[in-house]
What we know:
about 325 residues; mainly alpha; TTF1 factor
Amino acid sequence: IGLDTARQELEEFIPHVKNISDSSIKKMAGRDLMRFKEFKKQGVAVKFGRFTQKENRQIQKNVDEFLALTGIDSAEKLLFTSRYPEDKDTIHRLKTQHHFCEKISEGIPRPWRLIYYRARKMFDPNNYKGRYTKEEKEKLKKYQALYGNDWKKISELMSRSNLSVAMKYSEIKSTINYGPWTKEETRKLLNAVKEVMRRKLLSENPGCVFSQDQSDMDFWIDRELLCTTLPWSEIEIKVGSRYWRQCRQKWNSILTRKLTGGQLFNRGINGLKAKINLIKRLYETRAEDANEVNWDEVSNAIGDAPRAYVQAQFYKLKVSFVPLWRRKTF
Length: 330
C-alpha cells in the first residue's frame, strides 16, 4: 500500500504515528500492520511501555522455538549476528528463509521494532555485568573522547551493552552534584521543561496563540502533557549540573507537590487513607502484572498525582511491608 495510506491505517493503532519517519512507516506497514489488524479482531489493543513478565516469557518462547527450527546454536548469534562474522551469511539466510520477523513477534501486540529491542536486551550477555569499576569509567571517558556517541563501537570495546555505556556516560560526563538542589538549578530545570513543553505544543498545534517571542509568558497546558515523558537528555544539558535521572526525579517531585498540595501520602490519617485507597484501586484492576496497570487512571482516582509518583509510592509500600516480595506475583 502507499505511504499515505499506510500512515493513515497505522494511526488507528499508534497515536504518535505523525512523528514517525517515512522509512519507518514503510517498515511498519510490512511488519506490523497486518498483525495489528489481527489483534484488533481478537479485541487486543496495541501496547507500549514496559514489557510484562508474560510478554517476556513469550519472547523467550519465540526465540527458543526459532533456534530449534533453524539450528542456530545460541540467542546471541541470532540477535547479535555481527559478533560472529564467520556465521553471518548463514544466519541471515536462515532468518529470511524462516520468517524471523514474524516468528519473533508472535503473540505480542507491540510494534516489531520494540519486541526486537527487548529481545536483544534480554539475551545480551553484556547487559548485566554489575557496577562499573574505576578503570571501566576511565576507559569509557577515553573511548567517548575518541569515538563520540558511537555507543555500538564503545559497547563492543568494553563488552557492555549499548544502553549501559550510554547511560553510564550520562552520569559521569560532568561533575555531578548529589546534594540538595539550589534555587538556580531548580530555576534552570523549570525553564528547560517549559521550553520543551512549548516546542512540543507548537509542533502539534502550529496555529497556537503564543510564539517564541513570548518565551517568558505563562501558558496553559493539559495535565496529561505535564506528566508525559520528556526528552531528559536534552533537559540534562540545559541544567548542566545534574544528570538526566536526577532531573526527572526533581521534576516529578515538583509536579507532585503542585498537583496535590504536598498532602497526598503524608504521615497521619490522611496519608494512611491514601495508601489504603491505592492498594484497593490496584486490587480492583485485577491485573496480573504491574505493567498491565493503567497508572494514569489509578493516579486520577486517588488524588490527581503524577503516575510516576504513585508508582514510586506503590514500590515503597511493597518493599517496606511485603516479605520476600521479589518471589511473589503481582
